[in-house]
Write a structure and sequence with these properties.
Alpha-Beta Plaits, 18 helices, 52% helix
Amino acid sequence: MSTSRARPLVTPVSVLLSFAAMLAIMGITSTWWEFALQDHILPRFGIPVDAGGGEPSRWRFIITAVAFAALSQIGPALLLFRLIRRLDRARIDVIKAREEADALARYDPLTGLPSRRMLREHMRKRLAVSAGSTGYALLLIDIDRFKIITDLHGLQMGDKLLLEIANRMKRLLPSDAVAARVSGEEFAVFMPRPRSVEPLGKLAQQLISHLSANYQFESLEVRLGATVGIAVTPENGTDEGEVMRSAETALYRAKRNAGSYRFFEPALDQELKQSRRLQRDLQSAITSNAIVPHYQPLVRLKDGAVVGFEVLARWNHPMQGFISPEVFISIAEDTGLIGPLTQSILKRACQDAAQWPERLKIAVNLSAMQLKDTALPDQILRTLKSHNFPPQRLEIEITETALVDDDKTANAILTRFRAMGIDVALDDFGTGYSSLQNLRTFPVTKLKIDKSFVRSMNTDANAKKLISGILALSRSLGISTTAEGIEKAAEAKYLNSVDCDFGQGYCFAKPMQAEDVPRFLNTHVPVLSGAL
């Protein structure tokens, strides 16, 4: 804080000096009047001057006048002093608040690291005089799963984690590197770049490794992750704004594969611009119901009867044509639009399925992001009730990866679904790394065998063994099974022979629009497994 700017302007000493100066001025003025001016001025106005009192009388008059004037000023002076002191303290408080706010804007109060503002100021100064140097590098570091941990264990745990993250970074970075906290769970490192980029990649990997290691607080053990985007000068920009945008673009791309690092490339910038255009178009498409559900039949293998339909989102962009669900669903997850998209598709599916036989169920996919929202079951139940659609006709499909990040919250959500009468299917079973644990922990009612096993079972004996093992496991747990990706009648026949319950794939029908479902149901003839 600047002591000269915050020094009080009014002090007791300054008041006494002012009071003494006032008395001196009054004394001098009174003396001058009594001995010099009144003898010359008053007679001009016809006022007689009595000079008989003598000089002592005059001095008594002067002293008395000054004394009474001083006494008359004490009260107002004290009141004015108090008012001025209050104003002075208010001025000092304002100066302190401004300087504290400036300090907070420049440094993160929790970790003590420079803020985003100070980082940019530092970058601006360094880049302005970087001629002749090899350049600089900016690493943006996003902490994965941080919000999940704070939601589970509170903000106090989040503060402890941030402090430990900052300390781990400080221990790892070279002395000429500047580390900063640029947002809630995002950090940055600005440093002179080496002559080649390989050391930067090694540093990024070290940061990921160290920041992803377990965090131990008393009896609680927490595991986070880190993803890094890297930009270098002068190739990726020559001012702090360009370099920051390049690093943000690289980080955005790296987050598709969390726990990795990515250097900026010009193609990434074009990809990001296209993605942002799709984000705007996606939001408009959801609002206007331009993303529509298609339906692929789920067939009971023992007799070929249709038991329901999986609901698949399809988007026919007016300019770009058909856009893969893998593309727009990923964008929806990144931008927080996955919830509105799911609700839009579910509403349309409920309206369509209400026209079908009541024995037919619909299966809707949920994103991993949605299994972190404890309000999701109630939202879906409200949608079902608003369309008079029985919860027993709905099946929720989730992937194993959706259960990994926050198993407690996911388990609570799935348990709520089951209490409502909604079935839970574990999609792409066999491709995850914790399948058996998931079956033991979560209230799953169906396994969907991944299509990769079905496609390879005719050429790979191990694929058949894996399928047989999955089926035996599901039977022992009382869980039904669906095989995905069945394209040939022989595949359906074999799967039925090993007691797989249901099948799905082009062998039965491709995904179809709602208006085609009644015709399909009318023309579809259930086929016994022996005729498949």
